[in-house]
Every structure is written in structure tokens, then in C-alpha cells.
Automatic annotation (TrEMBL):
Pfam families: ESSS. It is a single-pass membrane protein. The keyword Transmembrane applies. Belongs to the complex I NDUFB11 subunit family. Residues 26-51 are annotated as: Disordered. Complex I is composed of 45 different subunits. Interacts with BCAP31. Residues 26-38 have a biased composition (Polar residues). The keyword Glycosyltransferase does not apply. The chain crosses the membrane at residues 69-87. Keywords: Electron transport, Membrane, Mitochondrion, Mitochondrion inner membrane, Respiratory chain, Transit peptide, Transmembrane, Transmembrane helix, Transport. This is NADH dehydrogenase [ubiquinone] 1 beta subcomplex subunit 11, mitochondrial.
Length: 119
């Protein structure tokens, strides 16, 4: 264990006091920017107009360029995912075990082979 000189703890305390006062002046919150913004007397949001999506009655809604692509792409991908999920192969352990047991029983002659047709 290294020997501590009596001056080292005092120096460490002074350094800690200096850094803590410097950190107290510099905050990580945006309180200062909020105070500066609140000094302005203008509103920071659009007041409610009472109209749905801000469109007055009688005025026609104009679609933006991305909306059609998003609607067709989203619905199309959902349909494609549904079809892929419906036709995915059954890879469960239960299905495999049932088929394996059926094969073994058919091989031993305990279970009749369904492919053999006896007329």
C-alpha cells in the first residue's frame, strides 16, 4: 500500500471542491433555455381550431405524395405476410414425432401402410 503524504488529501479535497462548483454552474438540464424561451410572449403551439385535422368544413383534403405509397405498401405487405404465414411449412416437434412414430410402426408391421391399396 503506498504511503500517503499529509498534503495529498487536502489537495484532493480542494480539487473536488473546485470541480463541484464548476459543475454546479454548468447544468445538464434545459432549464436555462426554457427560461429564455418563456420570456418571449408568443405561443409555441397551434391553438385548437375545432376542425378535424385542421381542415375547415367544405374544403377538400389534399393528399400528400407519400400517403398513397404508404397505404398500398403497408396493406400489401400485411397481405403478403398473411399469405406467407398461412403457407409456411409445419416444423413443430409434435408433427415430426407423429410422423416418425407412424413410420416406425409401419416398418414393424404394427400399423398398416396407408399408401398400400388392397383391393
Amino acid at each position: 500500500m503506498p504511503f500517503l503524504r499529509p498534503q495529498q488529501p487536502v489537495q484532493a479535497a480542494r480539487l473536488l471542491a473546485r470541480t463541484s462548483t464548476a459543475n454546479a454552474q454548468r447544468t445538464f438540464t434545459s432549464a436555462a433555455s426554457r427560461q429564455a424561451a418563456s420570456s418571449h410572449e408568443e405561443d409555441h403551439y397551434d391553438p385548437p381550431t375545432g376542425w378535424l385535422w385542421g381542415i375547415p368544413p367544405g374544403q377538400k383534403y389534399e393528399k400528400e405524395g407519400w400517403e398513397g405509397l404508404m397505404y398500398y405498401g403497408f396493406v400489401g405487405s400485411l397481405i403478403l405476410a398473411g399469405v406467407a404465414y398461412a403457407f409456411k411449412p409445419d416444423t413443430s416437434i409434435q408433427t415430426w414425432a407423429l410422423e416418425e412414430a407412424r413410420r416406425r410402426l409401419e416398418k414393424e408391421g404394427i400399423l398398416a401402410d396407408p399408401d398400400d391399396e388392397k383391393k
